[in-house]
Amino acid sequence: MAQVKICGLRQADHIAAAADAGARYVGLVFFPKSPRAVSAPEAAALAQHVPMGIARVGLFVDPDDSLLDRTLGQVPLDMIQLHGSESPDRVAAVKALTGLPVIKAVGVADPDDLPVLTNYGLVADMLLVDAKPPREAELPGGNGLSFDWRLLAGRRWLRPWMLAGGLTAQNVAEAIRLTGAPVVDVSSGVETEPGQKDENLIRAFVAAANR
Ligand SMILES: O=C(O)c1ccccc1N[C@@H]1O[C@H](COP(=O)(O)O)[C@@H](O)[C@H]1O
User: Fold this and answer.
1) Of the candidates 58, 115, 112, the residue with the CA atom closest to the CA atom of residue 88
2) What is the residue extent of each domain of the chain?
3) 3-210, which class in CATH?
């Protein structure tokens, strides 16, 4: 059984479905290139629909201070997810600037990618282990690609962590079994097309992760 984050929500009814199914984190994407991107006013409206006890995570890709300031001035967020090439120093700076816990995403393709997680574990509040995006990918995440989960078997870091990358209701139980992930994060695996979440897929994913 793992906790669940549903990322890239853009509709109040999908937030309600995620909450009702038992998700513990919901993600709002502030990256204009993403098909899941929301504006700050849209996110502020959506945030009102998130029940107490569920963390509102703002996803950013290499944000500058002004984007963070402007967004946080309008949207009540509980955590920041950094999904770009932010250095450990930048992670620390974002924590200091926003006063919020930071989740740092790291792309993994082979064993050489794992030591980086130890470095980020010194500064981030939570680690997010995702598939490494292919060179030609437009997005650094949210591509529905998974990686060899056996790379993570028996691994432990200084911080809590979540697993992401190509997870679906069909494969999430196996991913949890192989990695021991305490939290799983999904975006495209609960969509019918890029950016279009589906309530039944959300419910099926949370049920499968909680089984
Ligand atoms: O979801 C997006 O559009 C996105 C854009 C830019 C960076 C990250 C993004 N999503 C994150 O990517 C992973 C994996 O998503 P998927 O389930 O494979 O589609 C997840 O952490 C999302 O939060």
Assistant:
1) 115
2) 3-210
3) alpha beta
